[in-house]
Amino acid sequence: MSTVLRDVRPYGGSPVDIVVTDGIIGEIVPAGGGSEADLVIEGRGGVVLPGFVDLHTHLREPGREDAETIASGTAAAALGGFTAVHAMANTMPVADSAGVVEMVWRRGQEAGHCDVHPVGAVTMGLAGEHLAELGAMADSAARVRVFSDDGVCVSDPQLMRRALEYIKAFDGVIAQHAQDPRMTEGAQMNEGALSGVLGLRGWPSVAEESIIARDVLLAEHVGSRVHICHLSTRGSVDIVRWAKDRGIDVTAEVTPHHLILTEELARTYDPRYKVNPPLRTADDVEAVRAGLADGTIDAVATDHAPHAREDKDCEWAAGAFGMLGLETAFSVVMETMVVEGRLDWHGVADRMSVRPARIARIADQGRPIEVGEPATLVVVDPAGTWRVDADLSASRSANTPFAGREFPGRVLHTILRGRPTVIDGVLT
Q: Is the pLDDT of residue 238 over 80?
């Protein structure tokens, strides 16, 4: 099959036509010069980038299909410009064996909206007591390379050390949910003056920062790779920057919501704004934006966390932690990083595609837009705006913190190895 993507601007450059044959970029010619094809997609001057790669997605299947399924979650991903997502292990049953990760991987293939890469659990049942079947998951058809107990921290330092040693054999990475459990028992929001005013138990920044400091030192000692999930504080950025300057093999991600929202939203007592780690201060938001801009933070990862309506339509203390993120991620990055001049289009591609693919060791994602490369692309309209409507989300859940908010930047088309999954903002 041949496709022509007409009038698009790679990384915001000059307008071109991209000719795709059998999933591979065959030609890149000046706009209007593309030959006839089986399918013509009008780019209308939009910016074309490598398809986005999410390192941190909760698809809830198996076990909580009432909140999300692999099919619905990956549909939301495609609409958000993602061509690959990493499905976290905190399902029921937990993805701690070759059998479960292979099931998730195959369901992703059946859905067809984007590539689904299962994340394997670090410990059996996420219990933090015994290592999971890391080698078996790595050798499975799913080829797992990212392992995480996300939702809980691997708090035992000896167990974390053994996990870091184990995954070296197949160039894996441990993605740590940095949260000291003893320091966050019953925590409801960021610890500070506001938590005292609101009467909600505080979640101190040091609970995150102390685990990051410990784990970068463990990674240095072992000579292994560690990735920090949903980094959220100024101190965390400083520690990762120090570790990178020291030559430690550490990478880190920030969520879209930690780039734009602050703890002030807790004043509403609306559980839509309850998330783990919690929304932090305006100073922390500025720090993570600066860290993403200078490359200390490697990736934007959504931590897309769908919940059934009853898990959020309740009082704050009973509400579940988590927010939707796949369909709004690009627009948040557009508003906070591109409009403000902190990232250019090459920078957006680097943080949302190139580096995430490299961290996860995915060879065919995050590739340059060049002849001979896979046609795995997203076309965005920087001048477009849209208003978030939770009822129109492809997700089964509606727990977006951005309902009713207008954003700049729209995803027009998403293309996976030459096959359109989204055209003009609509699933194919």
A: yes
What's the pLDDT at 327? 98
- Asked if 126 and 165 touch (Cβ cutoff 8 Å), the reply is no
Phi and psi, residue 156, nearest 5°: -75, 115
User: Which tokens belong to 349?
Assistant: 């591609």
Does 36 score more than 90 pLDDT? no
Which residues are designated catalytic?
A: 303
The pLDDT score that the predictor gives to residue 150 is 96
Q: Are 251 and 227 in contact (CB under 8 A)?
A: yes
Gyration radius of the chain over CA positions: 21
Q: Which domains does the chain have, with CATH numbers?
A: 2-47+373-427 (2.30.40.10), 51-359 (3.20.20.140)
d(CA 277, CA 20): 42
Question: CB–CB of 86/56 below 8 Å?
Answer: yes
Tokens of 19: 């000719």
Under 8 Å between Cβ of 112 and 427: no
Peptide bond into 277 cis (omega under 30): yes
Please report, in angstroms and rounded to a whole number, the separation of the first and last CA atoms in the chain: 16
Q: Do residues 4 and 37 lie in contact, with contact meaning Cβ atoms separated by under 8 Å?
A: yes
Lay out the sheet containing 426-427: strands in order across: 24-30, 16-21, 2-10, 39-50, 377-387, 406-416, 419-423, 426-427
Tokens 């909760």 appear where? 58
Rounded Cα distance, 359 and 53, in Å: 10
Task: Decide if 150 contacts 56 (C-beta within 8 A).
Answer: yes
Residue 34 has pLDDT above 80, yes or no: no
Give the pLDDT confidence score for residue 416 in this predicted structure.
Answer: 98
What is the rounded CA–CA span in Å between residue 215 and residue 250? 9
Residue 35 has pLDDT above 80, yes or no: no
**pLDDT tens-place string over residues 368-413:** 999 999 999 999 999 999 999 999 999 999 999 999 999 999 999 9
Query: Which residues are CB-neighbours of 110 under 8 A, at least 6 positions away?
Result: 71
Token pair 């870091």 in the structure block, residue: 164
Digit-coded pLDDT (tens) for 340-364:
999 999 999 999 999 999 999 999 9
Distance CA 369, CA 17 (A): 12
